[in-house]
Specification:
The protein has eleven helices and eleven strands. The protein is an alpha/beta fold. Strand 6 (109-113), helix 4 (117-128) and strand 7 form a beta-alpha-beta unit.
């Protein structure tokens, strides 16, 4: 594989954003490039490497961009060339090619702030369902691989964790379930301006409203606060940490897949409106 393509793949895996690796896997007759030729497509449509240029490459780039916009992670694209098209590509006769397109990069992840009962249960459930998981807590006795063997644990001061321990992206689903509401607020404040696909904060509507009011007074933007999903999780009358984790995970999946959250949340029962007595640690 070309070194430039390898570097692009490595960067996508470590830092993002995702891209698409396109590999010629079949060739029949005259084709622009032979089997094994590769090309990397960035989200803006720019490329590294080539699968031969011309109409095939143009079509494959378009297919790669469609793949990045959807939920699929891979697909096989086939194209046949007429004699005229082949001649334009510099070949003597027609042929066909198949190109395998694979999305590579920062995978969807759930980032959990808080390694207490709910955070631990969510880490377990999220890993089972295929999410990459990162769990942060400032308490070493909670944020460690022995206590949470699923995914990655980060035990650093919050600012340091967000500066160098946790890199969020538009594939990050963030859940705030720390040891207390004051720390929840600090995490929410620290997340302003950072990319994420979802931000859920534990607590009743009343407690979230008070938190938002205080953060607004402290200069946090209303736009940022309006992105919070609260009460967190779908209304399934969850009580135990494990049940709450399932309700949160279900909501994250619904957001990811573009489901109608308003419809799924309605009607919210009075009991769920008062959801607040949830074990944290």
């Amino acid at each position: 594989m070309d070194e430039a393509i390898l570097k692009a793949v490595d960067r996508a895996l470590k830092e993002g954003p995702e891209g698409v690796l396109c590999t010629v896997v079949e060739e029949t007759g005259s084709t622009p490039r032979s089997m094994g030729a590769k090309m990397w497509v960035f989200p803006d449509g720019s490329i590294v490497g080539t699968i031969g240029g011309g109409i095939l490459e143009h079509h494959v780039i378009a297919e790669a961009l469609k793949l990045l916009e959807g939920n699929a992670r891979a697909r096989l694209y086939r194209e046949s060339f007429t004699a005229t098209e082949a001649a334009e590509e510099g070949a003597a006769c027609g042929g066909s090619a198949a190109v395998f397109l694979e999305v590579i990069g920062r995978a969807r992840e759930i980032v959990i702030f808080g390694a207490g009962h709910v955070g631990k249960a969510l880490a377990h459930a999220a890993t089972i369902t295929g999410y990459r998981v990162t769990v942060w807590d400032e308490r070493q006795e909670f944020a460690n691989p022995d206590n949470i063997p699923w995914g990655r644990t980060v035990c650093l001061p919050l600012k340091e964790a967000l500066d160098r321990g946790i890199r969020l992206s538009d594939k990050s689903y963030v859940v705030v379930v720390t040891r207390g509401h004051a720390l929840d607020s600090e995490v929410v404040r620290s997340l302003e301006g950072k990319p994420f696909a979802y931000l859920g904060v534990i607590g009743s509507k009343r407690k979230i409203a008070v938190m938002k009011e205080n953060l607004l007074k402290d200069g946090v933007s209303e736009e940022h606060l309006n992105r919070i999903y609260a009460p967190i999780g779908l209304p399934i009358k969850a009580e135990t940490p494990e049940e709450i984790a399932i309700s949160i995970l279900a909501e994250i999946m619904a957001v990811e897949k573009g489901a109608d959250i308003k419809a799924l949340r309605s009607p919210l029962t009075a009991a769920l409106e008062m959801q607040g007595s949830i074990p944290r640690a």
